[in-house]
Design brief:
With 498 residues, the protein is of the alpha/beta class. The chain has helices at residues 3-15, 28-42, 72-79, 99-111, 146-161, 172-182, 187-201, 207-223, 242-256, 258-264, 282-293, 312-327, 337-341, 352-366, 404-417, 427-433, 439-455, 462-470, 475-478, 480-491; strands at 20-24, 46-50, 54-56, 85-90, 117-123, 136-140, 167-169, 203-205, 226-229, 271-276, 297-300, 330-334, 371-377, 395-399, 495-496. It contains 20 helices and 15 strands. The longest helix is centred in the middle third of the chain and has 17 residues, at 207-223.
Amino acid sequence: MAEKDTFDEIALLVRARYALIVLDTREYDRALEGLGRIAADLGLHLFTWTRSRGMVRGTHASDPVVEKSTDPAKALAWILEQGAGLFLFRDLAAHFDDPAVSSHLLDAIGHFNSKRGAIILTGHDTSVPDALRPHATVLDLPPPTFDDYRRLLERLIREYSAKMPVKVELTHADRVRLINNLVGLTMLEAEKVITKLIVEDGALRERDVSRVTIAKRQVVEQDGLLEYHPASDKLDQVAGLDGIKAWLARRRPVVADPRRAEEFGLAFPKGVLLLGVPGCGKSLCAKAVASEWGLPLLRLDPGNLYDKYMGNSEKNFKRAMQTAERMAPIVLWIDELEKAFAPTSGDSDGGVSNRVFGSFLSWLQERKGDVFVVATSNDVAKLPPEFVRKGRFDEIFFVDLPRAAAREGIFRIHLSKRKQDPKAFDLAQLSAAAEGFSGAEIEESVGSALYAAFAEDRALTTADVLGAVKGTRPLSQLASDRLQQLRAWAAQRTVAAD
């Protein structure tokens, strides 16, 4: 439901004598503006109540205040003395534990059996007491749309251009990316971000596009349930995995311009599940996708979700997913999925893991917002079948041990990262010696050889790296049976990543 539809619904409810309306939103200012329009259209006065000021006859700071109305019970009792009107209460739910508040609210509801108007409560995740539930209609105020942010950007450019010289050096693509990066912020937050960018140097440039994500990072870190990861290496710094790279490249235009894609009939991609051998680049791929697409990367750590108190784990999960949706478009990274959401047998944890797992499956299927999930798993045997059925993810990739060309690329990348010239090494020989090695094992071999060379105060050589490779027993030898089982399972159920 769009914002206009929500306020049209509220106006209809008021005309139909619905006396108690709960508007779920974090954006009080948007709610106030929309309700002001409704009041004007219906010919009603709008009264607003906050705990700090009490009841105010209007919406402005200079409007008259009703005396002794900061107490919510007295403010509700005061409604009975009035005629028609819309009465907006902000965060009244915090006082529902007071029996007097609930009692006066029920009396005020009855007031509108014969008077025009309604009581409207705003807040986020408002829980209505049982006694009030039969009288309450709950509506969500949807987040701002792309067009809302676009209009805000255009308005602020006009306003500040009238006050000072403002250079707008944004291409159409830059504008689209900037507005997409604003998605998830409230209109007030977005206005502050854009204003700061303009006032800071009197210009809007391409470099400002990525700076918007700093504001999102602050929002994420305040909640403490999701971890914000800065941009890292792009996909060209990931050796091999050509199948994944091609799949992601085909979807990059959709991510870059989701509105045009929607008009074309394409939805924002859901995500991928990466199964395979540990240390073969699954997590690195998740990080690289976000960097390649220019999206924020959020990591879900299940350890932050679980709480010893009944019901808190489920609430934490809900809050984490709401944050992810609010920050969209984003990449949400869930590492080692089997450790995070595999259901437990019996009631060893009171059924908490099973309930969170069920919530996660539902969210994967029905999530709102442009959230691209990259989930990884090393042990497919522990994954329940619900995860691998179609619809949860767009595709399931199997990441096997790197082939010869990919191993050369991995050696080249890690030598370069350690300030070594790859051209000085026999990469083909190193690749052949490292057959059966994972990317992580190759990286460790390069690091081990470099320590040895540094200790002897000499340059690193191919022989040093070969020695480190020969001194390592890879996981493919230590757990060959497990690897064969994994490959057999993936053969008919997944797409090759390389």
